[in-house]
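Chapter review. Work through the record for Alpha/beta hydrolase before attempting the end-of-chapter questions.
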Amino acid sequence: MTNRTVLRPDGVSIAVTDLGGDGPVVVLLHGLAGSSRELLPTAQALPGYRVLLVDQRGHGASTRLPNDLSRDAFVGDVVAVLEELVPGQRAVLVGQSMGAHTAFLVAVARPDLIKGLVMLEGHVKGRDDPGEAAQLGTYFASWPVPFEDEVAAREFLGGDAIVDAWVADFELTDHGLVPRFDAAVMQRVIEAVHEPRWDEWQALTVPTLAGFAKHGMFGNDDREALIRRRCQTDRIDLDGGGHDAHLNAFDMWIDVLSRWLARERINGTHASGR
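Structure tokens for Alpha/beta hydrolase:
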């Protein structure tokens, strides 16, 4: 396992964990307010692949306060990672939530670099209510940081699986524990994600799996809309888990992901959506 840094023209540094190996390349992209750390168990459950875990800008060990938080900037970061660290190889992009949105846009913009796309609890429909992003920013800004210790953090944040990931990723300072992201940055990032992207979705050409959790963010109408507008998309509904199914339905998630990757690796084809 090697820690790498990819420098971008705007001065942003992108932190990448490279698990090494010479198998097919898989790139993992975390969701909003997360980091690559929460996807390390997923990476370790994929033997035979060369897995890269990316801290997207504004998250984890990457630049925390970048000026450019556009979707194009996120796409450019992933393209730069691929071109610098695995030149000449096509990768499968695997993303959760906001990371799935990033992965999808990369696959649309640079299909020459991508041979497959897996979106866990991700969508392209955007949001009708602009206040949702503001509410999320307000929530993150309400955290009474720095937290004195993990106990204090858990007392405030609760017991969901994502809390374990947040706590594990906290930075220890002289004054206590602080998150590796900025609330205002998170709000700006999700505002961009909330723009509908149906035209890009219908232009997508690479084999794609859309995975949803039983108790996830998206109802059946939203799930069916993806397939209706791009009928060659594979759809898998997990029998459990919530929006963070990579954490709270791990075994189901790995089973689905491993099977799909193996099928693409063997025959390079994908079934019609269902």
